[in-house]
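Known limitations

Structure tokens in this collection are predictions and should be treated as such. Users comparing against experimental data should check residue numbering before alignment. To illustrate the layout, the record for Nucleoside phosphorylase domain-containing protein is reproduced below. The input appears on top and the generated tokens appear beneath it.
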Amino acid sequence: MAAAAVTPAAGFISGKTWRAVRRANRVGGPFVGLVVPNAYEMDPVLKNPSFKPRGDIPILDVQGRRFRFGTIGGQSVVMVMTGLSMLNAGLTTQLLLSLFNVKGIVHWGIAGNANEDLQIGDVTIPEYWAHLSLWNWQRYGDGPANELPLEAAGDYTRKFGFLNFSDYTVGQGNKELAANTLNSIWYQPEEIFPISGTPEQRQHAFWVPVSKRYYDLAGKLEVTRVPRGCSANVYTDNASYRQFIRNHFGCTPVEMESAAVALVAHQLGVPFVTIRSLSDLAGGGSSLSNEAATFLAIAAQNAVDVMLKFVPLLGAADEHDDR
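Generated tokens:
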């Protein structure tokens, strides 16, 4: 009890920290927010002379996240590492946007590849992102014509399709033996609460668009702009699933963070773009192992190189509503 009396709540931001945040915004804002998943995707930035740390704004640690301030090509930036997964990416992006005056977000990293027309090391920028690990798992015996639980209430939908496990059973010649009690999963949109809407009145989003202007600016760089990228709390190293999401959703990069960044930025009305370099053909390549470990450093560096060229393209026009 004595310790509790003198120790602030773990989720509480102290007055001292708020003063440091306000000073950072006053001295350096507005910022381009740089959001990166992992250390191996951030370290090449810290070692690159294009990133110039600011001497007038110290590194700021808030709630387990470290915010680094600097400039890239004249643009004032604040950079934060999220860690792996949708939860970490979403929490960190929300914290970034709640604390700092951020005019736009640039997110980068490596990704698996679902598009066999592209190669390891190619850098992709999707126009839309979707989260593919929010499901309604259908009971065995029901099929596409059966309404999902709570579908009538608007909680779930059959709009975005399903994956039927029995379609991937080895030896489908015998339909009885090919049946699978796991049945089907139906992909669901996220419930969102945009600042432009009414609190507690939900909307839904499946495909989230990146900033149109950011996407157009990317055309000036040596990148492959693609229609769609997909995220999930799943590391995809399975050829059958890769082919399914490519055929059903048109995904190119597949990874674990970008859709979370997209959903937070979209709800708060902040322009964003994601740069993902392909490190492996998801579930393909060598029959012995996944290629990601072999090409991770090359793919990460390629993504960093594009990010460092992209950020300077963002000028005063970012102050306009260019989503």
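For this record: The CA atoms of residues 70 and 178 lie 57 Å apart. The chain has nine helices and 16 strands. Please report discrepancies through the issue tracker.
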